[in-house]
Inverse folding.
């Protein structure tokens, strides 16, 4: 009996938590890119939002694909577009795109690769000229990224300050750009909510996209949703998949 009470209390807690998140304009749906359960959870949340105006902003696409995405009203994503924009298997995301086409507008979230190249070569000022501001920091973020970057280097290669500075600049730029992009979408579609498909690495509460969006647009209420217990500390809510 006690187990049933605990289970019912958990269900009630999740329902109340989700209800409290409903007024949010921006809903971050985190993911590990190769996790089938994360993508299944994202789709469940999207279906729960169906019926109200919604924009689906996706890290999988860069701004160069915006026109192609705008034209997706009846036909599915082409294999050519997908291979151009994202390196992970289409099958992992297929149920989301099949649901989205004809229901919601898909919007790209990442910058055009040519813009990233210009920022890498010209520094923060190149980004600021277009997206108004770029916070290079905070320092704990730099330390965290240095450990990640070092772990991906070949065993015989040492990390130089120049390499770390370039890596840190681009990571901050991507997070800042995506926050700027969400802000622009909120202005472009004032009656819509914005669901954001993005990797958990961009959702750190202190230096990820949400923190940068809050600094830019304190008027935009948002909520972060995780789909696995190990990512719970990054997000406001943990979404548990329905039994299949």
């Amino acid at each position: 009996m006690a187990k049933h009470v605990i289970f019912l209390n958990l269900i009630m807690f999740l329902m109340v938590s989700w209800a409290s998140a409903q007024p949010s304009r921006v809903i971050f749906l985190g993911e590990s890119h190769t996790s089938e359960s994360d993508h299944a959870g994202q789709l469940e949340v999207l279906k729960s939002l169906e019926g109200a105006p919604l924009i689906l902003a996706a890290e999988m696409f860069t701004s160069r694909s915006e026109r192609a995405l705008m034209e997706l009203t009846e036909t599915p994503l082409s294999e050519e577009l997908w291979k151009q924009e994202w390196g992970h298997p289409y099958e992992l995301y297929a149920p989301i795109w099949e649901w989205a086409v004809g229901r919601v507008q898909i919007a790209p979230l990442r910058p055009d690769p040519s813009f990233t190249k210009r920022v890498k070569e010209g520094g923060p000022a190149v980004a600021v000229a277009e997206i108004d501001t770029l916070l290079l920091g905070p320092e704990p973020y730099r330390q965290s990224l240095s450990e990640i970057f070092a772990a991906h280097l070949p065993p015989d290669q040492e990390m130089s300050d120049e390499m770390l500075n370039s890596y840190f600049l681009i990571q901050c730029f991507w997070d800042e750009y995506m926050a700027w992009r969400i802000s622009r979408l909120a202005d472009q579609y004032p009656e819509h909510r914005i669901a954001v498909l993005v990797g958990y690495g961009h959702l750190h509460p202190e230096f990820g996209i949400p923190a940068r969006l809050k600094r830019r647009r304190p008027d935009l209420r948002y909520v972060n949703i995780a789909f696995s217990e190990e990512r719970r500390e990054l997000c406001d809510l943990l979404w548990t998949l329905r039994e299949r």
Summary: The mean pLDDT is 88. The chain has ten helices and six strands. The first strand starts at residue 26 and ends at 31. The longest helix spans residues 161-188.
